[in-house]
Structure formats: structure tokens, C-alpha cells
Design goal:
This protein is mainly α. It has a single domain, classed as Ribosomal protein L20, C-terminal domain (c-terminal domain of poly(a) binding protein), CATH 1.10.1900.20. 76% of the residues lie in helices and 0% in strands. Helix 1 crosses helix 2, helix 2 packs across helix 4 and helix 4 packs across helix 5. It is rod-shaped and about 85 Å long.
Length: 115
């Protein structure tokens, strides 16, 4: 029988994968070779979706700003252009939260930059 080398390291590696697969359905959670594939795929999705999350939120902020801008008689693109011309350095996340939570403050910003 061959002598086992590096048993501690390989055992730790397998335990790590199985721990990450906890909660998966069926053999995906307790058979190493199957769990390894599904954990790898899950990590790929996690990497991809961390990038997609940023895009999704930016789109949401733009929609909210545009809706609030139209209530105030302008459009998103005109508002952003006016902000840049006036030198108002405020990001879309903050603008969107103002539009939703504090419409009066958003209206004041629109009036200031469109004068």
C-alpha cells in the first residue's frame, strides 16, 4: 500500500470545500468531487455578480433621478449637464437618495443649477 503524504493539507482542503457547500441540495453538499464543481461555479457567479450589482444600482439611481428631475421640469441629461457646468460635485447615489427621501432638497438643487 502506498504511503500517504500531505494528508493534513488535503484533508483541510476538502473540508474547506465541503464547508463552503453547506446548504447545497443533495450530493452537492457532501460528496467532495460534486461539491467542488458547484462551489467553483458559485464562486464564479459571485465574482460576476459583484460587478453586475454596481451596474444595476447605477441604473436604478439614474431612473430615480430622471423621475424626480421630470417632476421638477427638466430631464436627467439636462440636470447632469447643468450640475457639471455649475461645478456641483455630487454623485448619483446621493442625488437618488435625495430624490426619494427629501424631494424639497432635490428641488432646491435643481433650481440652483438650472438658473
Amino acid at each position: 500500500m502506498p504511503r500517504a503524504n500531505h494528508q493534513v493539507a488535503s484533508h483541510k482542503r476538502r473540508k474547506k470545500v465541503l464547508k463552503m457547500a453547506k446548504g447545497y441540495w443533495g450530493a452537492r453538499s457532501n460528496v467532495y468531487t460534486i461539491a467542488k464543481n458547484h462551489v467553483e461555479k458559485g464562486l464564479q457567479y459571485a465574482y460576476r455578480d459583484r460587478k453586475a450589482k454596481k451596474r444595476t444600482f447605477r441604473r436604478l439611481w439614474i431612473v430615480r433621478i430622471n423621475a424626480a428631475a421630470r417632476v421638477n421640469g427638466t430631464t436627467y441629461s439636462k440636470l447632469i449637464n447643468a450640475l457639471n457646468i455649475k461645478g456641483v460635485d455630487i454623485n448619483r447615489k446621493i442625488l437618488a437618495s435625495l430624490a426619494v427621501e427629501n424631494p424639497q432638497a432635490f428641488s432646491e438643487i435643481v433650481k440652483f443649477v438650472t438658473e
